[in-house]
Design goal:
The protein folds into two domains: about 90 residues, Immunoglobulins (Immunoglobulin-like); about 525 residues, Maltoporin, Chain A. It is about 5% helix and about 65% strand. It contains three helices and 44 strands. The strands form six sheets. It has a 22-stranded antiparallel barrel. The protein has a five-stranded mixed beta sheet with strand order 8-9-13-14-12. A four-stranded antiparallel beta sheet has the order 3-2-5-6, covered by helices on one side.
Amino acid sequence: MTKKIMILILFLGNIGIFQAQTITGRVINDERQPIEGATIVMQTIDSIYIDATISDTEGTFVLNGQPNEYRLIVQHLLFQTKYIVSNKQDIGVIQLIPQDYALAEIIVKAERPYVKAENGRLTYNLSLLPENRTTNNAYEAITKLPGVQPNRGSLALAGTEKLTIMLNGKPTTMDAKQIENLLRNIPTDRVEKAEVMYSAPPEYHVKGAVINIVLKRPNDYSFQGEINADYKNQYFNSGEMNANFHYSTPKISLEMVYSANNVHNMEYMNLYSRHALAEQVYPIEQNEQLRSKYWEHSLQTSFAYNFSDKSHISISYMGDYIPDQHNNSRTTGNFQTGNVDKYVDSRMHNITLQYQSAFGLNIGGDYTYYRSDNNQHLHTLFQSGEQNGFDMVSGQKINRYSIYADQKHPLAKGWNVGYGASFRLAKDYDYQTYNQVTGDLTTQDIQSDLTEQTTNFYLSIGKDTQTGASFSLSATGEYYTIGNYRKWAVYPQASFTYSLNPKHTFQLSLSTDKTYPGYWAMQSSVNHLNGYTELHGTSGLKPMTTYSLNGNYILRQKYIFGLFFLHSTDYFAQTAYQSTERLALIYKYTNWNYMQLAGANIILPLKAGNWLDSHLTLTGMRMRQRCDKFFDIPFNRKQWTFSAMLDNTFKIKQNLFFELMGHIQTPTIQGTFDIETFYNLTAGIKWNIAKDKISLSLRCNDIFNTGNPNLKVRFKGQYLDMDNAYYSRAFNIHLTYRFGGYKKRETKSVDTSRFGH
């Protein structure tokens, strides 16, 4: 055994790498179950080392480099060593024969690679990363990825302006909120990995930064299920229940998820405005409380069929239904007393079809239907005794279609070429009708039909070299139309990865991105939030284009040091303005000249024995924002801002874990807004019992209720203070029960620091 180990060490210590193509395969036992942790070493026929790796939880492996003929050595302590000579790119299934060893006690301590850099992306095993943390679903697990943090209802990635979350690398017509709902109903153990890309490849049919969630494919006969129950106190009491069922064979996979979520929350805003009008200053103080109460029902089903290891087809459906959502806003102060009641019915249906062939062809498409119907009543009593009021009926109906086709060909000497096309069509119908209008109110009835079309086609080329370097170049042509706006554009993209050895990896990416405004934002409508605050649409609002450059240095497959620069032209954002014509605070989307970010981020995983696992993320950047046509007060502003986030997991004892996470950000800007320093602290505890079939977690988000910053405006006569205090402190109790063939996958700590990938 010692001799075998010494030989293996010599193999792994060789840094000569022939990276041309990839060799894939899968290791199983005599019961056709996957074998995790098997070592696969690739040599030339004359015994020159090429590459080595270990099989993952599904038994699969990938090796870089393919001579005309090669030898594989497949080893595992519990199985007989197997030797294979082949010239195939896909070796197929490798079955190992069990072997009994009479071994003295052996203790192996090693550390898993924290992150793996490959093909211009950072790959994390998402099912392992939050294993002992108080995460309850795939979406919450994403928030634990290094550099990812919630940002005002969405997710942000350090060094990027926009982040897209994808599932299995395929485009969808669902929006960000709908994808979030989908991922919140997916258990973390259904996720194979998360791929973080600062510049998404063109075959993803999205631009900019992407986190791709890859789900596990069926490989055995199993029936698994989960039942989850949540209690939440966020000023009000609420709760959620969901159940998911998963049946699989080596050929088919069937999944169903249903959730019912009772939502009851509150946010409030304390506003102080010194409003200058006609050479007089009006001090306006008001407190606004906004309450929401509704039930949300979600249903997800999916079916997949595997023709072979490389060829499969899948169809999925997701539906979301929110009946009779009640939103209430109550405003008090020295200027007005008001009440707004809004009732909303909304529903969403999405169906997706995908096919992947064994020869590199991927085709698919999806369809999304969304509809909302709103009834709103406003009544305002001003200090002067005047009254305003109205009844309003509004709604939106959206039909979105998407189809795509992609093809990739491996070529000689490590080259590959890819090409594809996609087409998206969206039809949006909006209407808004006012009735029983009283007082001095500016109202506008609208009825609008918008048709949006996007046609994309791309060509990409890449190469893996024998020196550990890989690169890809692509260009995407796009023709976009909406209303009377039409534009042709070409979006270049490039990425480069170089592994000097497993301890030192360099990544560089250059991309071009385009972001389109929401349909409501482009309407010339006026919505009254209360007697003082108005929300204006912007007819002719243009999409923004972003150019970004990202570089990363990864040390020892865990420490990440990054630099980034991005420049957005026609950047659009919603900013407040104190009207110079009347006492009204106007929120309106406007196109800026540009928005620019330049900075650095550092991601440091820290470990102390087996009782502490920490992750520290530090970001510093310089912001510059310019708009020459912001009402009558153009701005050109600069600001340095810094943020730090520390996530700690403490192992109290076996199956009992405590988590403490802190986040702080220094002052920043958004247009004329000054955003003050804010911080939050979150703590949680998780207990796994009954062989991990039952999990109980308790968590308190934003313990001190400081996670939402105060805003102020002190710009060219504008004077405004806003304590925008969404009641973010929330106490959660989560219970999970797993049944059926659920078995926790045993994960071994394997040191791959000397492996050549």
